[in-house]
Amino acid sequence: MTSMTVTAGPFAGQKPGTSGLRKKTAQFRAPHYLECFVQAIFEAIDAPGKVLVLGGDGRFFGREAAAVILRMAAANGVARVILGQGGLLSTPAASHLIRLNGADGGIILSASHNPGGETGDFGVKYNIANGGPAPEAVTAAIHAASETLTGYRISDAPAPDLDRLGETLLDGMVVQVVDPVLDYAELMERLFDFPAIARMIAGGFTLRFDAMCAVTGPYAVEILERRLGAAPGSVVNAVPLPDFGGMHPDPNPTWASDLYERMMSPEGPDFGAASDGDGDRNMVLGRGIYVTPSDSLAVLAAHAHLAPGYSGGIKGIARSMPTSTAADRVAEALGIEAHETPTGWKFFGTLLDAGRATICGEESFGTGSDHVREKDGLWAVLLWLNILAATGQGVDALLAAHWRRFGRVFYSRHDYEALPVAQAEAVMAELRGQLDSLPGRSAGGLRIVAADDFAYADPVDGSVTTGQGLRVLFEGGARFVLRLSGTGTEGATLRLYLEWPCNDPDQFETETRTMLAPVIAAAEALAGIARHTGRTEPDVIT
Ligand code: VG1
Ligand code: CO
């Protein structure tokens, strides 16, 4: 067999965002578009001789894309590709396979929490040898290569059967099709006390896991039902579908409303959780109680030592800047390092590699640890279950005890989606223009003590990242942050993050929206979201 070079490209705008390149599926299916971006990856990483992991979340176009990438990898001199059977791999499982096999990197085909299907979104993400998302230097090199290439290489041999386990040769390259679940399930079994969780479940503890017709279904069925003994059917929407069954696989109270409502009912199970398209996000609920992702991070960090994988204690906690400061309180109490990074898991990699953080998290339903280099939805669920089994407490009691010990940080994120880009930029520009003059002034009755455009100097490799979100800090620690999403594919999405720390136990049961009212008013006064966009309510509140 031979390979050929197809003259095509370059395409403008192949610039990875917060997490890979995300575009409308139709864009990715346009002639040569996927191929040119993949060629840019191969050029940036110097593909010849490399070992790569490949898989995705099962969304529409994933199988076709995997077949094309295999043929391109062969033509570009890649030595071996380890492929999840059927082209399936959750993001954390892909991260684990890269590490386990000592691979040079991996390509994940997913647009994560964005809806899939013919009219939905598709995405391609490159991960490096530590298993984590490519850092900025690598994504910049990929983007640069995408801007100058004049074609791509592809083998004219057909791709092998994606469903048949085992090794085949494609134009001299080894294709190794592996079970997507097995190695991951074994890793989880090493980290957590499966017998204790199984005993709790056998003792009558009930749970519901909503896989949202995305990639986590097979993982959750194997681990929660087969290995831990949860009743068959505890995992719902468990079969990955190309269009996610029409669902929007973003595990939050809005998009996982069926689970949310069941959990709020007195007849609901003891524990509920959901995951996103590629399995790296999680939402956790107890009966009658929703755990905010920022609180979940803090609770997991405070109790991680109860799980076998973390019995020696944790070394540090890292959170993205817009994530609430609840985790910082835990780090302080434990006497360990706390890190504040820009949004996106790629910024945790150096801290995890250097052993300066063990647990990381983002307010966007992402939590994870140094077991892989991605956030990991099922991992978070299992750590919760391990903690519940070890303490014998329910989610509500555990959260209440956590607040009593550390105080409660009221938190919410307001998303304004699909805004005209100019309107979103006007909001950002108005606030950015005032930042220097804000300290000492008041807004919404609150006194401002600091305001800036977040910049981050990585303490491990010294790299500096600027322009990561506008933040305004008030006396007493209340705060709001405003930034533009880097994962959307339509117009602009404005995210407003709101936070109000509280040490008064008498107020812990107050509605979040009531507690946040002053800081919401301050944000409106300073940034003028309603004035610039005409929107008086966010599209999604988490
Ligand atoms: C969002 C979240 C961010 C997360 C990213 C990828 O990015 O805010 O915290 O890391 O999605 O998550 P943005 O730029 O839209 O705010 V996933 O699960 O979609 O890969
Ligand atoms: Co995701």
From TrEMBL:
GO terms for cellular component: cytosol. Pfam families: PGM1_C_vert_fung, PGM_PMM_I, PGM_PMM_II, PGM_PMM_III. It is an enzyme of class 5 (isomerase). Residues 1-22 are annotated as: Disordered. PROSITE patterns: PGM_PMM. SUPFAM superfamilies: Phosphoglucomutase, C-terminal domain (SSF55957), Phosphoglucomutase, first 3 domains (SSF53738). The keyword Methyltransferase does not apply. Its EC number is 5.4.2.2. The keyword Disulfide bond does not apply. Keywords: Isomerase, Magnesium, Metal-binding, Phosphoprotein. One of its GO terms (biological process) is carbohydrate metabolic process. Its cofactor is Mg(2+). Belongs to the phosphohexose mutase family. PANTHER family: PHOSPHOGLUCOMUTASE (PTHR22573:SF2), PHOSPHOHEXOMUTASE FAMILY MEMBER (PTHR22573). This is phosphoglucomutase (alpha-D-glucose-1,6-bisphosphate-dependent). The lineage of its organism: Bacteria, Pseudomonadati, Pseudomonadota, Alphaproteobacteria, Rhodobacterales.
